[in-house]
Amino acid sequence: MAANPMYQFNVYRIGPEIKIGDVDLSFTNASLFMVVSSILIFVIFKIGSKKNSLVPNKIQLLTELSYTFVSKMISDTAGTKAKPYFSFIFSLFMFVLFCNMLGMIPYSFTVTSHIIVTFVLAAFIFVGVTIIGFIKHGFGYLKLFVPSGVPMVLLPLIVIIEIISYLSRPISLSVRLFANMMAGHTMMKVFGGFVVSLGVVGGWLPLSFSVALTGLEILVAFLQAYVFAILTCIYLNDALNLHH
């Protein structure tokens, strides 16, 4: 069972079963690692902001770099109007990043390798951004689906394409993160299985691939958190500035 590369994605219950009707609200390993990620973020930033010394320690430097990185990302993609949403985007980026990175620890669980988790996050962003767009511009927000300079003959077709593209945002946003994390961890598990089965003599080649894949997967874990956050900023820019 453990040799199956897909076994690492199994969700199982921790503790007693909790059900309300047909809805299972039991605490699972996925829930556990989401809680652990949230606690780690809180603890690290609490420690990092406790002492604001001129010569920062490693944790303070990490928190300051994270703050600056996300702040610049928002300014570059969504402008100054998006500053009030800094807390949300920062929390989103750090949560996805920590969930991704925690999944790199052996015998841990990668929360973001499950489409239900990534889709709920993406759907929440989609609904939130749409509400912000209508609050800011009213029904003028629908101009987003009518690009300027399009000939009248092509306008009905373009509007349909734009609406489909807009509605597919939560799907593309969630699948991108889920697929990358799941594929990377599956490959790591497969090569790890080759190392064990081939032994000391023949296992050096798959071991080399495993080491290289681990380094690549750490990079992918960061990049996917960045892509998730920056696409959120781009969607927010559409809602605030009605750019297309």
Compact summary:
By secondary structure, the protein is an all-alpha fold.
The overall number of domains is 1
**Biggest β-sheet: strands ordered side by side in the sheet:** 1-2
* Average pLDDT metric: 86
- The helix content is 55-70%
Helix/strand/pairing class, anyone? mainly alpha
What fraction strand?
under 5%
Q: Helix and strand succession?
A: EEHHHHHHH
**Number of distinct beta strands:** 2
Low-confidence stretches: none
Query: Which value, in Å, is the CA radius of gyration?
Result: 22 Å
Give the termini separation.
Answer: 50 Å
Give the count of helical stretches: 7
**Overall 3D form:** globular
- Could you give a short account of the major beta sheet? 2 strands, antiparallel
Describe the secondary structure blueprint for this structure.
Elements: E1 19-20, E2 23-24, H1 29-48, H2 58-78, H3 86-102, H4 115-137, H5 155-167, H6 169-202, H7 204-241
Antiparallel strand pairs: 1-2
Overview of this structure, please?
The N and C termini lie far apart (50 Å). The longest helix has 38 residues, at 204-241. Helix 4 packs antiparallel against helix 6 and helix 4 (115-137) packs parallel to helix 7. The chain has 244 residues and is mostly helical. A hairpin with a 2-residue loop joins strand 1 and strand 2. The protein contains seven helices and two strands. It has one domain (7-241). Helices cover 68% and strands 2% of the residues. A two-stranded antiparallel ribbon has the order 1-2.
Key terms:
two-stranded antiparallel ribbon, 244 residues, mainly alpha
